[in-house]
Predict the structure.
Amino acid sequence: MLGESMTDLRTARDRALRLYDATAARTSAGVLAAYSTSFGLGTRLLGRQGQEDIRAVYALVRLADEVVDTYRGDDAGAELDELEEQTLRALRTGYSTNLVVHAFARTARRVGISAAETVPFFASMRADLTVREHDRASYEAYVYGSAEVVGLMCVRAFLNEDRRPGEPVREPDDVQVTGARALGAAFQKINFLRDLGADTGELGRTYFPGTTPGHLDDAQLAAILQEITDDVATARAAVPSLPRRARYAVGATLALYQRLLDEIASRPPEELLDGRVRLPTPVKLLVVGESVLAEARAGRTADA
């Protein structure tokens, strides 16, 4: 009887833990759904586990971003420090009372994300509280921590989507690392341009070296666009090395951001400073559909 009771208790505890894990995963999914249509569309092309992992990464990144960009209170630094402490502790234990952190830690421990990625990420978030203008060195450090490491987190999720318990974590190769970093950098720099008006007008920030808040000329914009184009090309070259579902997801997201980049490039600098550039939802759906068809055709050609 005692043995049966202990078994029942363990079963009940396991059931409760699974419920908590599922609740954390739904919380992260809700964050992504609320904040990013474009990223969300690409994520839907992954398998169930892949979607859960990418949502968990996105939600933690968004949580930190909200502290420095939306809350901006006098204690924002303390809030960010607390979030980082929660994250580091959860990476060790696999558990957090913060549902977003809990979901992230479960993914991180399964796919091999570690403090090597989270520490530079939080360092970049912390820079947003004090740094208003960047030189080339601080800009590159900021982009690495705020975006390139996020690309590395995502590629780990892609490679380990179907990894079974007990199997070794699959590590990205050099091509995948380079592509993931370039992908994160490209998306971040496009976001910098898209949010130029808000960053300079509301937050008093400028990220691009050699620029000042509220000012961007044609030559500066042309140089930034070329830098992003180079990042996109590097990221796109690594896509064929990814697992099949990830190729669809990354290809679709790249197509969306390329369309956004084209829209940004068609506008003069002063217009970018006036408001946020957006793509209508029907355009996003069309771009994703075209990308999926192109990837399907490429796959059939490769198999022929």
